[in-house]
Specification:
five-stranded antiparallel beta sheet; single chain
Amino acid sequence: MSDRHNIQVSVRTQFLPDQSDGENGRYVFAYTITIRNSGTLTAQLISRHWIITDGNGRVQEVKGLGVVGNQPLLKPGESFEYTSGCVLDTPVGTMGGSYQMVADDGSPFEAEIPEFVLAMPRTLH
């Protein structure tokens, strides 16, 4: 990745007990993502590609345009934050993937979403 294309992705997660139902294998998590353009070119987020793995090793791939209905345009130094959710069949899982971006010079590039853990409290030791 060059200095021109430098997108930083940070994540905060939260287990949502009021929406979860462990007896029926439904574990709901919220995640808040901050996407920061640390590069020198303005860039637009076009689409996303998630790889979601539950505690049983079952993998789901999710692809789609934008994030929460937006295709944010980020000038150098700007950031965009959004919150979304994920439902797992297990109390622990992981998410990661990439955002497909286009810089204002027309060059496409990918911004990695580092893998992060979704975990119901008191399930990891």
